[in-house]
Backbone:
């Protein structure tokens, strides 16, 4: 089985699926000859031509809107790239008012099979506007699938799953994991279904619920706790809407303690929703407060290195929160 | 009425496309305008009687809409309407009862099953795209649809409508920019009725014509008297032919006037004079079309009355059917959020 990093998995899957399905079109800023600023589409323009890998004007609203218009015809299956998730907001109205509601407001007469890819997350000296986690805004919206796969295996499997859907998918990729995270990604066809979390590490004393880069840091922290005799179970949500309630609740009922870890702001976040779910449906199983560990509730990641380091989560910070909760 | 569609003895000195319209076509267009007007007026009455919660009107806009529809292939070309396009969607094949069902929020509303406010038209079979209430969002979506036709190599045309108020939105600019960059088979019709609810056009834009902006996108811009159905038809024929030939997009600005308040919840007496409204009522597009049809001997007083009676009977029928139709079951609120997920095995 091939070992590759996240960006290689993404690129290979795009290429394989475009070879298989001529309806797939990629659109975005610099996705053509340049191959994307993160190289996600490298070589695709050369292989598939300018009619299938389309460089767009620098205008996120219409990158998404024209994607919707292409998808509505049924002729094409567009995958649009928002260069940085921070720049998705001009398209927010198109995603919320059009893509997400088209099926609902037409009783499924019109559907929008559109994938919107967006690199998100910090730790790469991106400052306020190249580092944000924006998933909570979209996880709030009925009619969307919102995913945040963070391993090569999941990126392949979830991109394939997204391509089989007739509904819009927000496909968030933590940009720091692009080259940092390597793993096995099989050649053969497989699917990672939407709405299914993964248990990355099993344990009986404490449950960590996370996704993205923070999930990888949580696994490292769990290894540290294991050496101290604390068994930490790490759940990778992978899909943020719809949540895998079954996996979350089963783990909480087993361990009785929950630490929610993510890089997004804490207020009205995916963590808030997970906490509410556990509070309502597993209250009597809890042996400690539902705890959240996130960066501070400030706008986004500051540029200056000491500030960025203070903002970002890391295995040490997560291990400390684990220890405190385990001792409760 | 078909018997009345006799050949007139009109001359064709100018060689305009509208000169090629047969009497039967002209009468069909006239009938659609009258039907739309009667349906629209009835919707106002039902609102004022407390039987319809909301109505938004297209009265005064019928000429450009019916003229444009006459140049398209319903069910082949793509059409993204806006909420004043009652006459347009009727001309494309929707029925009076379709509007009435939507007006009353009935389950059988083909646009949205009672989910959306009235006049948010949609009909997938007729390729009439669904619209939302935030304005101008349909313009870049329509550009995407036109791009799909171009990439697929078919000669479909995409038409999108909006009011001049909506042209202030960035969506309008971005959509036209795409149409220009990709030389799309795309026609954007701006129905300039001179008000964005209460804000007059001078406070919306510094240019005299919306169509002047076409130059900025490298597309063709045309200003047309939106109340003159025949010149609207001429302009649209040219735009559709340009699109089908692969020669690019057109921005058509149809100058017209909204003779009604913005919606049933508006009171236009607070921002414009009755004299102004009265002036435009004298330039009513149906009135102007009737003058032409009378002049050419296509329409007579008897035939006019016959057509009006027919339209009112159609509206009566539509109203009765819609009034007697069921509301959606509450369970419908939970349906159509997502399509069925494939049967996945990890």
Residues:
């Amino acid at each position: 089985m091939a070992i590759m990093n996240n960006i290689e998995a993404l690129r290979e899957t795009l290429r394989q699926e475009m070879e298989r399905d001529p309806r797939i079109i990629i659109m975005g800023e610099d996705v053509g000859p340049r191959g994307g600023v993160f190289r996600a589409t490298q070589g695709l323009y050369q292989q598939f031509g300018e009619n299938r890998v389309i460089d767009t004007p620098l205008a996120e609203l219409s990158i998404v809107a024209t994607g919707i218009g292409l998808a509505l015809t049924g002729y094409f299956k567009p995958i649009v790239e928002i260069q940085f998730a921070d720049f998705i907001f001009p398209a927010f109205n198109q995603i919320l008012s059009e893509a997400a509601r088209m099926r609902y407001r037409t009783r499924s007469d019109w559907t929008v099979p559109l994938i919107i890819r967006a690199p998100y997350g910090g730790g790469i000296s991106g400052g306020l506007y190249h580092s944000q986690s924006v998933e909570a805004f979209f996880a709030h919206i009925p009619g969307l699938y919102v995913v945040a796969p963070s391993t090569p295996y999941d990126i392949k499997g979830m991109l394939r799953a997204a391509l089989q859907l007739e509904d819009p998918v927000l496909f968030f990729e933590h940009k720091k994991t692009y080259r940092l995270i390597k793993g096995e990604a099989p050649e053969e066809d497989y699917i990672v279904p939407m709405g299914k979390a993964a248990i990355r590490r099993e344990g009986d004393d404490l449950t960590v619920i996370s996704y993205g880069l923070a999930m990888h840091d949580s696994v490292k922290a769990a290894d540290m706790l294991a050496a101290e005799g604390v068994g930490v179970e790490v759940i990778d949500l992978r899909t943020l809407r719809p949540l895998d309630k079954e996996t979350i609740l089963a783990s909480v009922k087993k361990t009785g303690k929950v630490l929610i870890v993510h890089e997004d702001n804490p207020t009205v976040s995916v963590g808030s929703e997970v906490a509410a779910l556990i509070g309502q449906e597993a209250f009597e199983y809890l042996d400690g407060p539902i705890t959240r560990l996130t960066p501070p509730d400030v706008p986004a990641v500051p540029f200056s290195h000491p500030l960025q380091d203070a903002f970002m989560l890391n295995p040490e910070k997560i291990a400390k929160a684990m220890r405190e909760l385990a001792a409760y | 009425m078909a018997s009345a569609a006799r050949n007139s003895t009109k001359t064709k000195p100018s060689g305009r496309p509208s000169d090629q319209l047969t009497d039967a076509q002209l009468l069909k267009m006239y009938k659609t305008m009258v039907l739309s007007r009667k349906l629209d007026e009835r919707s106002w009455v039902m609102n004022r009687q407390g039987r319809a919660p909301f109505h938004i009107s297209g009265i005064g806009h019928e000429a450009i809409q019916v003229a444009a529809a006459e140049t398209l292939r319903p069910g082949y070309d793509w059409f993204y309407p806006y909420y004043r396009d009652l006459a347009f969607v009727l001309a494309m094949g929707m029925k009076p009862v379709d509007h009435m069902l939507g007006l009353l929020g009935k389950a059988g509303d083909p646009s949205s099953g009672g989910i959306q406010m009235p006049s948010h038209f949609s009909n997938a079979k007729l390729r009439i795209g669904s619209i939302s209430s935030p304005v101008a969002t349909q313009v870049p979506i329509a550009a995407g649809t036109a791009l799909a036709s171009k990439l697929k190599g078919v000669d479909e045309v995409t038409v999108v409508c909006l009011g001049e108020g909506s042209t202030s939105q960035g969506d309008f600019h971005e959509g036209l920019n795409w149409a220009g960059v990709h030389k799309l088979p795309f026609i954007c019709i701006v129905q300039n009725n001179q008000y964005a609810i209460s804000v007059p056009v001078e406070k919306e834009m510094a240019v005299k014509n919306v169509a002047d902006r076409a130059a900025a996108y490298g597309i063709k811009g045309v200003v047309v008297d939106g109340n003159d159905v025949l010149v609207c038809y001429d302009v649209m024929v040219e735009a559709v032919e340009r699109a089908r030939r692969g020669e690019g997009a057109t921005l058509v600005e149809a100058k017209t006037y909204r003779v009604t308040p913005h919606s049933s919840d508006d009171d236009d007496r607070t921002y414009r004079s009755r004299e102004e409204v009265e002036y435009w009522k004298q330039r009513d597009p149906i009135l102007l079309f009737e003058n032409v049809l009378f002049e050419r001997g296509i329409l007579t007083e008897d035939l006019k009355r016959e057509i009006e009676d027919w339209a009112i009977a159609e509206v009566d029928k539509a109203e009765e059917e819609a009034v007697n139709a069921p509301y959606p079951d509450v369970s419908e609120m939970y349906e159509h959020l997502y399509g069925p997920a494939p049967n996945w095995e990890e």
